[in-house]
Design goal:
The complex is a heterodimer of chains A (about 250) and B (about 260). Chain A is mainly alpha-helical and about 250 residues long. Chain A has 10 helices and no strands. Helices cover about 35% and strands about 25% of the residues of chain B. Classes of the chains: A mainly alpha (about 250), B alpha/beta (about 260).
Chain lengths: ~250, ~260
């Protein structure tokens, strides 16, 4: 497993500061006009202003609420679908095959359909998030159940487990570590789908603020949003899910 | 406990060829026997154990356990696998008490009961250890304790010492003999090693590479046994003869991967 050593932290810090310095340098040279490449300081000011004078907190909050609702629904649907396609061959032949095909469609491709069906609304965004995020969960559950060593199931059976108790005491704990990776993947997909969806609808949200930045030609707001989206995505993925994975690592 | 097998056949297809195992095998296993099923790789020993464990139901013939047809796994027929098959999310004592949940609803009582079986395999000090922290030999002892803890009527072991190093194997053989003497557990032990069968069993059933029973002997030499004793050498040559006889009969069409281990 990857470990945070002091050494790698130093390298990370140096790399990122180098990158920002390079950006500041290019911006300082004024090769590109300011509305195309603002300096890091300007972006920082925009972020600061956005949070403390503007509506960035509201945007972040409503985006987070939206993605959480969508994610929880997606995961619930995904888990049930996954259990179903793992248990019944005819379901995996039908729905399972369909999911693999669906997985190759990028979330943006669903936006026009969602807008026509649900209007320019919250529901359209939720639809896209759910559609994107439930697939990794479903396929993940199916895969991890299929990968349980047969002997482990047989051991459970010969020690008195069958039906529901076999699921509760053997199958579910056996798939948990692998399941967590699928849940993590679902989260990443949900996050991407959320931003894609929000670009096209009204209301508060990170995607909307990003799109507003574009329509006002406010490049520093555009970059500020990208930075915030990256930071939030990174923190949820690397801090929340990684620590969960650590506690679930059996070995 | 009675285990009775009559006219057993198992048909299966592998690589598009349909094959048949056991050719109407019949045998009985009695209470408190330590039976070794001995045979070359691919002779169907493991399939035999899977049938008795209840994992394999598509057989023909009668397999009766206490007069009832075996068609699913049951706690009265506990299994020890070659690769241990311990539950990695549970610690040692939780593994051992896994099968006791229905019998002993109270968790404290359940753990107390499990401790007794950890004592039996000398692992009390590792009760709280993670399974992955133990060596292969220790993991297999946990698996044996886990199977014994449910007090099965018959203990089924599928080449349990096959994955272990020489020293752990020797220790576990002694341990099994000790357990068998102490609690008179009925044991069905699958192995491909003639020496292992000679060291452990009081009954040896030999299958040839055609999965036919070629020998079924009582072997009552006292423990601990020495492989160089006259009793053992005598039985060893009997087993070798039984196996080579059937090979000659088949005019050595198939070369067996069987290593008698001498």
């Amino acid at each position: 497993m990857f470990k945070f050593t002091r050494h790698s932290l130093v390298i990370r810090f140096l790399f990122f500061s180098g990158l920002i310095l390079f950006w500041a340098f290019i911006a300082y040279l004024k090769i590109y006009p300011n509305y195309l490449l603002p300096s890091p300081l300007e972006v920082l000011k925009t972020i600061n202003f956005g949070f403390f004078e503007g509506d960035y907190f509201i945007a972040l909050g409503s985006s987070f609420r939206r993605v959480l609702v969508g994610y929880l629904m997606a995961v619930s649907i995904g888990l049930i679908t996954g259990l179903g396609i793992a248990r019944f061959k005819y379901l995996s032949d039908s729905i399972g095959a369909c999911l693999t095909a669906l997985q190759s469609i990028p979330s943006v491709a669903w936006v026009p359909l969602a807008l026509l069906w649900f209007g320019i609304s919250e529901a359209a965004v939720l639809f896209i998030v759910i559609l994107e995020a439930f697939i990794p969960s479903a396929l993940g559950v199916q895969n991890s159940i299929n990968n349980i060593p047969v002997k482990l199931i047989q051991a459970g059976q010969s020690l008195g487990c069958s039906g529901y108790s076999l699921y509760k005491r053997v199958i579910i704990p056996a798939i948990l570590p692998q399941l967590l990776s699928s849940l993590r993947l679902s989260w990443a997909f949900a996050w991407r789908a959320l931003i894609a969806g929000e670009l096209f609808v009204n209301g508060y949200g990170l995607g909307q603020t990003l799109e507003l930045g574009r329509s006002l030609s406010d490049m520093s707001q555009v970059i500020a949003m990208i930075v915030i989206i990256a930071i939030v995505g990174y923190l949820t993925d690397n801090i929340f899910f990684k620590s969960l994975e650590k506690t679930l690592n059996y070995h | 406990m009675t285990l009775s097998i009559q006219d057993l056949n198992l048909k299966f297809s592998s690589k598009g060829k349909s094959q048949q195992l056991f050719n109407g095998l019949s045998l009985e296993i009695n209470k408190s026997d330590f039976v070794c099923i001995l045979g070359p790789s691919g002779c169907g020993k493991s399939s035999f154990l899977n049938i008795i464990a209840g994992f394999e139901n598509n057989y023909e013939g009668k397999v009766l356990f206490n007069g009832e047809v075996i068609n699913k796994p049951d706690i009265s027929r506990a299994v020890v696998f070659q690769d241990y098959a311990l539950f990695p999310w549970l610690n040692v004592i939780e593994n051992v008490s896994f099968g006791l949940k229905k019998k002993i609803p109270n968790k404290g009582d359940r753990l107390l009961h499990a401790v007794r079986y950890l004592e039996l395999v000398d692992l009390v000090n590792f009760a709280k250890s993670k399974v992955s922290e133990l060596s292969g030999g220790m993991q297999q002892r946990v698996a044996i304790a886990r199977a014994l803890a449910v007090r099965p009527e018959i203990l089924l072991l599928d080449e349990p010492l096959g994955a272990l190093d020489e020293i752990s194997r020797k220790n576990l053989q002694d341990e099994l003999i000790k357990i068998w003497k102490e609690i008179r557990q009925t044991i069905l032990f699958i192995t491909h090693s003639v020496d292992e069968a000679l060291l452990l069993a009081n009954r040896i059933i030999v299958l040839n590479s055609n999965s036919e029973k070629v020998l079924d002997i009582e072997f009552n030499a006292s423990y601990p046994r020495s492989l160089s004793s006259s009793e053992c050498t005598q039985q060893r040559s009997a087993i070798k003869e039984a196996l080579s006889f059937t090979q000659n009969k088949k005019q050595k069409i198939e070369t067996s991967a069987f290593d008698p281990g001498i």
